[in-house]
Give the backbone structure.
Amino acid sequence: MAKKPDLLPGTLDMLILKTLTRMPLHGYGIAQSIKRLSDDVLTVEEGSLYPALQRLLLQGWVKAEWKMTETNRRARYYTLTAAGRKQLGLEVSQFEQMITAIGRVLNDAQEA
Amino acid sequence: MAPFFHKLSILFRRERFRNELEEEMAFHRARVEEELRSEGMAPEAAHTAAARQLGNATLLREKSHGVVGFGFESILADLRYAMRQLWNSPSFTIVMLLTLALSIGANSAIFSVIDGVLLKTLPYPRADRLVRVFLSNSSYPKFPLNPFDLRDYRARNQSFESIAGFTRGDVQLSGSGEPVRLNGFGITAGYFHVLGLRPQLGREFDQKAEIPGNGLQVILSDRLWRSRFNADPAIIGRKITLNTQPFTVIGVMAAGTEHPGNEYHAVAYGESVDVWWPFSFAGDPNRRGSHFVEGIARLKDGVSVEQARAEMNGVMTQLGREHPNNDAGWTVLVIPLYDEIVGKSRQLLLVLLGAVGMVLLIACANAANLLLVRASARQRELAVRLAMGAPRIRVLRQLLTESLLISLAGGALGLVLAFSGVDALVSLLPADFPRANDIHVSAPVLAFTFLVSLITGLLFGMAPALQASRTDPKQGLQKGGRTTTATGYQSRLRSALVIAEVSLACVLLIGAGLMLRSLLNQMHIDPGFQQKHVLTASLSLPHEQYKTNAATGRFYDQLVGDLSALPGVESAGAGSDLPWTGWDENAGGFSIEGKKPQPGQEYHARYHMATPGYFSALGVPLISGRFFKASDTETAPPVILINHAMAARYWPGENVVGKRMTFEDQPKEKDWMTVVGVVGDIKDQPNSPQAEPGFWWPELYAANPDMSIVMRSSSNPELLADALRNEVHRLNPALAVADVQVLDRIVNTSVSTPRFAFVLVGIFAALAIVLAAIGIYGVIAYSVSQRTAEFGLRMALGAQQGDVLSLVLVHAAKLTLLGAALGIVASLACARVLRTLIFHVAPADPATFSAVGALVVGVALAACYLPARRATQADPMSALRAE
């Protein structure tokens, strides 16, 4: 199995929340969606996905309910809550700040 | 808060949570599988690939559980598992629990003593400001005060907030019921003020009470007030009969009024005093030769002990100029009360704590060793757990949980042992041990035990846990069902543990050996008297009934005569004191005919009184001259007996019989006392460096009302007790015959401290050597079981049983000798600590060291003999087949 780049630490929660802004999804759907949107660059390991989902549930940022899929199978769908939306905003702005900061450092290092 | 409630709700719907997670993950796997199949993978390959991609299902589940679970849930699971493990190996568990319970229990018991004696603050407000005041010179390193000096200290000092004096003086209470002897102290004004205590009723003595004839007053203890006076709230002002005289009760102290201890005729610490009477004194304030008051003082705020000492020495120098005959040449000792009370016991206690700590270390090493064996036996189990995806940290925690479970259970059992052990310990304590009444299994002891158990568990659990968690799952599984051989690292670790055990046991055994020799030395010391077949008792004649010297002298003369005539009595006598009971009455300021003392070195000697039969009844030898005779009375020319030490100090090299001394400054002929004989020395205590100079007045001359009776019997002296009481009551039915005991017992009591030290260190050493033997046995037995095939092979190739036997024994001997060598080196380093605790034994006593060395090697080899025999019985064929 080829080694894929790891997610930046702390970004998984943000990606999950972002994915759920468009529609409720089940775990598999979330993983697929992240993979597709990142052009296969980001793979969410199932080993981290489900614990992360439990964490988000615990914080009240997502809700979970069992629904039927298109293929008529039972799956647990996760929905973003209002608190989750707020949290997402917070995390995105923090993330952007950090990226900008990192970018500045990198540019500076190149110029020097 | 919300996450907490969420967790809580999951906790109660644990089953549902698990099922939902299971279903969710199954769904995920199914979708991956479908996807792979749609990409053209074969169904079976797709199934495997999906399972693999999802990863270790167990691990995954545990992670999700970890997010929503509480920390204690997994710990509970660990605990349940640990208990199952321990339950399944009962012999391992029992050995571990017993060794830990014994060693932790011993530690808790010793710590109870340390807590009660050394750590608890003294029961007085701001007890750290309290000091004791003594005098010191070259002949008397620690001496009581003179009352006139004390009065001057009180007036002149700047360092003390208050200072007071006290002195032992028992009284007989009569009037209501059986007369009883009470522990009493004469105290100056402000004594309780110094201690920071206040009477619960009434007041304490003022300075007027220090003047003789100002009325007889008394303060009662709470216990006496309750037991003899029904806690009468109107007791103040009532008169009670003490020594047949009416004393007015002016105060009642509160419960918990503890005696601060005293040097002179010491009374046990604690609530040991029944009554306090006013210490009154009069006479010529320029005669300050007699010292019998003990000083106690409270330092002013901001004044250090050092400053107080310097200032008091200034005062004493001043007094020395004013009274050069008596007060010159003394220095003042100012000693913190805490040091005075616990000082003598501190080192013994710390040595005991060290000894019992070593026992615990040995027990730890033993436990670690047992766990290491178990860890190798469980390598497969651990490999399976690791392979199944248990995180290493969980396995580590699991093993530590087991260790802690054992150590805490051991600690709890140990606490049970400590509860009974402390009582035994207190009953074993020497009678003069400070603060014995404060020794209990208290809250700090509980905390100490818990902490020690915890640390013990971590200590002995850490090495095996780390070792086991390093297990490689692949290797562990490949080795099949059998236990794997110890790795080099592990066997080195185990050998090191055994060496440590042996060396610690050596240190303890050597300590015990030194203490045993010291005890034997003290028991076999020539006491200066014959202790066998002697009954003793004490009598106190009330002044009201025996007002004159003649009456007192006549009573004892008559009694001793009657006692000597009893069948079975070889000789009988009476003396002011018995050997080794703390008598330290001193007379100073006498003059010796034809001699002059050095300035500041005035003559001093212990004074005693005795009837003619006293010395032969005690078995004290006459060196020269004669004993007292019936004719040495008040009216005859005064005579004295002196001991050898006094003869040697004041008449060195001279024939002393016929020499004279006097207490008068301008002696007339009748004031001279002639030495008629020299008797053998008896030291103050069996281990005192030398006998103090001492002399005896004839009882018929000096008429001391409080005397000890001594009867030498031709058979069992205890049979004389009733006859003694009868004879006393025939002369005076109202007299109490107190302290009836055989002289043997007094001698036994005098060695109670070395015996206490030896018994405890001996018990610890015995425990240590047993633990070390178990440790050696364990290591050798394990190594033999590991090498069965090798031994079988060797024997198949022609090795004799003896070869194999010596192979094993040499292995054991190497460990033991190394341990013993280290132990002896450590003992040499530690022995200095023991120096003050042992008597007439060199800390590096070769006999003890070699005996212990031989004992340790012998025990170790004996412990290995069984496994070594087993090695010689290795059957080559079965050993090979087992491979």
Summary: Residues 255 and 801 of chain B are 75 Å apart (CA to CA). The two ends of chain B are 60 Å apart (CA to CA). Chain B touches chain A through 25 residues (CB under 8 Å). Residues 337-377 of chain B form the longest helix (41 residues).
